[in-house]
Amino acid sequence: MLQWKALSFMLLGIGIGFWIGLLPGLGGGVTLSLMLAFIYGMKPVEAFAFLIGMHSVTATTGDITSILFGVPGEGISAATILDGHAMAKKGEAGRAIGAALMSSLVGAVVGAAALALSIPILRPLVFLFGAPELFMFAVLGISCIASLIGRGYHSQLRGLAAGALGLLLSTVGLDPSVGQLRYDFGFLFLWDGIGLVPVVVGVFAVPEIVDLAVRRTAIAGPAATGKLSGGVWEGVKDTFRHFGVTFRSCLIGLWVGILPGIGAGAGQWIAYAHAIQSAPLEERDRFGKGDVRGVLAPGALNNAKEGGDLIPTLAFGVPGSTGMAILLGAFMIQGLVPGPDMLTKHLDVTFSMVWTIVIANTITVLICLGFMDYLARITMVRGTLLIPFLVLLVFIGSYASSNEPANLVVTIVFGALGYLMLRFNWPRPPMVLGFILGRMAETYLNISIARYEMDWIFRPLVIIQFLLIVFVIAYPYLQDWWVRRSATGQSVAAK
Amino acid sequence: MLNFFFMVLSAWAVVTAFSWPWRAAFFPIVMGLALFCFSSIDLLFSFFVSEGKPQGGQSIDFKLSEGVPPAIALKRTVEIFSWIIAFYLMIQLLGFHLAVPAFVLLCLRFLGRERWSISLLLAALSGVFFYGLFDWLLNLPFPQGWLKASLL
Fold first, then answer.
1. Do B80 and A420 lie within an 8 Å CB cutoff?
2. Verdict on whether the full-model pTM lies above 0.80
3. Phi, psi at residue A228, to the nearest 5°?
4. DSSP readout, B59-104?
């Protein structure tokens, strides 16, 4: 891995991945597919240094546009907006970027270590999860975010309704089981369903642009002048101040990566919900207004997931995400067959991947830390100067995700919906999570019914997951009750 | 208002799904019913729960700015949505290559009230950036627009 040729290819990959990660719509999967053609002349170690180096940093740099402009680099950077962009508005963009970068590095190291250590351990565990358990995971994920994103029954009901709306929207297009066209309104482009990037960019970025146009100030606002310098290092320190949240988000990321089909798009919200749930009750109101833990959790998850993703891809040839499915193509080009050979005959290639993830992320973070404080100053530029470029980024991102002009209309429609949801205090994250998980949930539900009829409900793991869902929904009320009871107990004792 | 919209939407989705084979209809019907129930219960709570009782309507999400007077905020919201829709129409009419610099120029000059020199410079830079990166380097296929298509 440290031979000059492999290292050079990795640096080239990092350079490409860094800049493409900053462009909305062009995520890790698109980058890999664009660059796959260039690996024909390379040796396996060089090819994977190039591709994995590139893929590793797109997740890291995608967070930067989310924090600075509220425009997600791709679907997996959306959760970072809630607190990252709120921090940027308070003049703490540097701190948010520092936290995102450092947590990403921690995530990458944990992911790589897990990849190196865990293949023999996790193999039997993964096979415990069938279609019913994976369906229940989707329901659990939506319940978690719906329950924890709001305080009180109004918000919880709206969170659950938004989750159901996301799941309903995911059914648009050709039904995978019987080929029935659903809610397509006669439009050909809806046969494949509504694209994820146009929805995410519309729901999250358009309301931010509208708000910037209404305020007519810089993103950071007039009160934030002079607060940016030194912020990046503060963010780095935050990663270790809240190491528990960071590390547990890494573990969630690993698990999300290992399980096929869930993906970082959904996982980031689970990690975000975990960050809220693990915060003391009186501190939960800070989330959404610029709490650094809301940046650390998705940042750590996104990169830990890369290591987790590689485990089933390498060991069983089962890709856990689009990016890994494309990477399987690279295996074929290089004449490698994923499976037991990767742990015996080609162990050197496997370990070169582990080192690539660690080195690529370390280099990216070191470079970024050097000049991100200056990049964060973009948030001080007056809003009216930024608005046309933000609209441009939104439209190019939406179009480039599938080269479909109709995606622009989808972005405008979902932008308006996202704005109305904010205006009327409806939470947006459960809708996006439901939309991301919908196809997977429906497929696993159909398989469960076809394979087990209604008996799947009585599988032991499904019952445990169901109890977990009930607990997650009841958790805020239980915690409120516990706090009230403790307060009453203290006042009685004081008397 | 959104409750009512989601109730109508979910009712329509469920009624539409009833005409499909059950395997295709099952999931949309369940989700449509869930959306209808949650939205209507939330609406009922809004009507019947007493004013003084805390309802806990705060969500952890981005909050729209509140410092601008509502009338001005509404005017600026309509204005920016009009610009976004206008950009889409410009893309359809002229194609991305011409629409990008044209939109940046007009938006900077008339929405941002920037000087002509800055607007022209940034519009030219955005055009070069767009062409150089997305067209020349990444070779993404962009539609040419109705105007150019009708002329060729």
1. no
2. no
3. -75, -35
4. BSS-----SS-HHHHHHHHHHHHHHHHHHHHHHHHH-HHHHHHHHH
